[in-house]
Amino acid sequence: MYDVIIIGAGVSGSAAARELSRYQVRACVLEKAEDVCCGTSKANSGIVHAGYDAAPGTLMAKLNVRGNDRMGELAEELDFPFSRKGSLVICREEEGLLALEELKKRGELNGVQGLEILNREQVLELEPNVTKDVIAALYAPSAGIVCPFGLNIALAENANRNGIEFYFNTEVMDIRKTEKGFLLETSAGVYETKYVVNAAGVYADQFHNMVSREKLHITPRKGEYYLLDKSTGDHVSRTIFALPGKLGKGVLVTPTVHGNLLVGPTAEDIEDKDGVNTTPEGLAAIAEKAGQNVSGLPLKKVITSFAGLRAHEDRHDFVIGEVQDAPGFIDCAGIESPGLTSAPAVGEMVAGILKDKLNLEVNPCFQGKRKGILDPSKLTMEERNELIRQNPAYGSIICRCEMISEGEILDAIHRPLGARSLDGVKRRTRAGMGRCQAGFCSPRTMEILARELGEPMEAVTKSGGGSRLIVGTNKDRI
């Protein structure tokens, strides 16, 4: 019997777990995938939004601004990449000026500081590669960029360090109310708990509807992206937005915290909750729309494309709180953009509800600091030479594109909630995220995984489940 079971190890579930670990509680996270950060949280823009887009008075607006405020402090505590670069919303036509003013007014009502409307000359001075058609832009200095993997993994690792259990490859199949709370039937057995936190992304409506007569409906909203080589990373210095439309903030162009350039997303409502395929039409639309606001985009230097899903709830607001006709069931649903930005505040809100409901006491052993994987590139040459002398694995480069060493991969495997697949290593170290997209480093990374996990090479997967890369041998072993 757990006090709390959280469904979903994405950024919302992991943030809730980390905040909950501040208290004395028996809690766990159930995740159907093989790792944290395998859904919406791994495939998004990596933007820390300022908070001018959400309608004033909504939960989305409140938690966006609170999450933005907390991000810098959290990045220091948990050691993940974050940079407050600022953003620009581009206006290219006179009739858009009223919309720009409205965004500024909305942001100020939401509590966003430092918003300013810049004229054409000011915009081009900040960003010379913005379209010469620009007539004005909304500047938000508090906006930023973050590594979505880094944030999610850091939250989960710290929650685990403070006593929250994580169970992977554990898909929740059914939820039933009991006298003591809830019984969860999963692909890995039965779990019982007093409280459930429903942080299941695009599947949150299904779990809500198992226990409540008041139904939720979540639409998967697909967004496709281009990721460009690091040689293009300085094409813009800030996140460049178009004026928002009815389906969201439109196609953006932004640097990433790792030095790449990201372009996207599209916005297409679909029915398939696992529909993360890219399409020729979607990628063509990105190229056309992105070029409207940023000139000379070097799209010939695309190294990969991908798609993610946003959990769009019909009322277009976050749904967080105890379900009225299912006491003990806490929704954390409809967490679409700006969900990544809002995650720290979402975690606070969910943990606050549970603290009051369960009368939780403070965890005297809570450790809020976490050290990420050592990045040798940030060391001086003398420090790096000493590191290699002490641990030669840091002198063995496995991923040549990103210059990732065996030492970093070993750390990724053996730290709390360590990597168990190629994608798990990639999210933690960036081995395989470079120009060749794992073409050269995969075999060597697989060898390290097999050796450290005590598994045959045939058992190593790309992303868990049946995603094995080796399916047999092409000649008899000698």
Can you give a write-up of this model?
The chain has helices at residues 11-20, 59-78, 97-110, 120-126, 148-161, 204-211, 280-293, 339-358, 381-390, 406-414, 422-429, 442-453, and strands spanning 2-7, 27-30, 47-48, 82-83, 87-91, 116-119, 136-140, 144-146, 165-167, 172-177, 182-186, 189-198, 218-228, 239-242, 252-255, 261-264, 268-269, 302-313, 319-322, 329-333, 397-399, 404-405. It is of the alpha+beta class and 478 residues long. Strands 1, 2, 9, 10, 11, 12, 19 and 20 form an eight-stranded mixed β-sheet that branches. The chain is globular, with a radius of gyration of 23 Å.
Summarize this structure as a short list of keywords or feature phrases.
478 residues; alpha+beta; eight-stranded mixed beta sheet; five-stranded antiparallel beta sheet; globular
Blueprint of the fold:
Blueprint: E1 2-7, H1 11-20, E2 27-30, E3 47-48, H2 59-78, E4 82-83, E5 87-91, H3 97-110, E6 116-119, H4 120-126, E7 136-140, E8 144-146, H5 148-161, E9 165-167, E10 172-177, E11 182-186, E12 189-198, H6 204-211, E13 218-228, E14 239-242, E15 252-255, E16 261-264, E17 268-269, H7 280-293, E18 302-313, E19 319-322, E20 329-333, H8 339-358, H9 381-390, E21 397-399, E22 404-405, H10 406-414, H11 422-429, H12 442-453
Helix pairs in contact: 1-5, 1-8, 2-8, 10-11, 10-12
